[in-house]
Write a structure and sequence with these properties.
homodimer; Arc Repressor Mutant, subunit A; Tetracycline Repressor, domain 2; 2 domains; 10 helices; disordered N terminus; DNA-binding
Chain lengths: 221, 221
DNA sequence: GTCTATAATACGATAGAC
DNA sequence: GTCTATCGTATTATAGAC
């Protein structure tokens, strides 16, 4: 059928990987996301990853040459997903709709992919040793593109004058906070371990903060 | 003079520690803050801490029984400093002044103590294994106390209705972001390693966000 | 209090049989 | 592809001389 069907026993796909290869790589990456996001790169061990993947350590290292290679694979897979909400900002929309949607998408990411968020946070906190290039090139370029849109809205008087890039920082930090610092959020609010009920109130807060006027000044009514 | 002057050679202070003890402990803690904040708990090694403290590893372990004990000492020292800005919010002030001052103090903390901020972030991200109790008791209580003040301002119509605790989360995340994610901030802005010039623009952004109205709605002028 | 030497172990990675 | 066994190293911590 497809390209390289040399080895008789191993039925290969077009990607050159057998079904079992893909399954095992997926199992490893899933387990590694658990462990890396919970303990950071140095705190994670191949023993725990192998254990969570129900696989022996040497077998795990048959699929990925090193611990670092697993980590890089996770980060690389993550980046596209991570940037999707920002990419979705349209120049032909209006500030309230576009920024509002962006905040909702980012907050949904935080709620749905907290492990990915913490993996990313750990990497940045460690000085971005693996994705420094990505930050300086791809992310920087995307931010400049979207900041130009926001700047146009500012110039048109539809938003308060501010540095659009710092507005993006504020959106990133407030939304990701609920994933990265969830332990603190839950402890302060008195919630249990798996409780994510605070996300509804968080969404209201961020709407008020970014789309409304938080503080009434005398005579502004 | 003071309490226990038993040992002849070692001149002790009221705290029961010789001058050289205090000096060495300070040197160790300073070096440990560097290393822990840069590499996290598991990424840090006693070798590097000892080296940065210009001290042999066994000598370092003469002052602190274990790596964890150094880490806990740093976190404990940090907590009071960390909460000082929040404690300073006065009930008899007005929202703009009090929240504005709080944001400035938090942002100053971020700029002046980025290593402390990253140490804290690493601890939370790891699930707060050492300061979970603190978060659930002391921090929770303080937040409730200050949230009550904010709630009163809301009830008096001086602030938009919102969950005050989530407002505090937003202030924490936006201000600490500039320390914890400084690598990303600098890479996106195209700044060099030690460059902290973005803090001025950050202060303006946070003023606009928390104290002004970010987005003009039609007819609100 | 400070050092050298070293114990004890955890961990990443490999060798080689099957 | 998967396993058992193991190597080599990094790292925490201690022993014991000075």
């Amino acid at each position: 059928m497809s390209g390289n069907a040399k080895s008789p026993a191993a039925v290969r796909t077009v990607a050159g990987k057998t079904r079992i290869q893909k399954e095992n790589e997926t199992r490893i990456l899933r387990a590694a996301l658990d462990v890396f996001s919970e303990s950071g790169f140095h705190g994670a061990t191949l023993d725990r990853i192998a254990s969570e993947a129900s696989m022996s350590k040497p077998n795990l290292l048959y699929y990925f040459k090193s611990k670092e290679e697993i980590h890089v694979a996770l980060l690389t897979d993550l980046l596209d997903v991570w940037l999707a909400p920002l990419r979705a900002i349209r120049p032909d929309g209006n500030p309230v709709d576009e920024i509002g949607s962006y905040i909702r998408r980012k907050l949904d990411s935080s709620r749905s992919f907290p492990r990915e968020s913490r993996l990313f946070a750990n990497e940045i906190l460690a000085g971005a040793p693996h994705i420094g290039d990505f930050l300086q090139t791809e992310l920087k370029q995307l931010v400049e593109e979207k900041a130009a849109i926001l700047q146009r809205w500012i110039d048109e008087g539809r938003m308060a004058p501010c540095d659009p890039r710092h507005l993006l920082f504020a959106i990133w930090s407030t939304t990701q906070h609920y994933a990265d610092f969830s332990v603190q959020v839950r402890h302060v609010l008195g919630l249990g371990a798996g409780d994510k009920s605070y996300y509804d109130e968080a969404a209201r807060m961020l709407d008020t903060l970014f789309l409304g006027q938080l503080i009434s000044r005398p005579g502004s009514d």
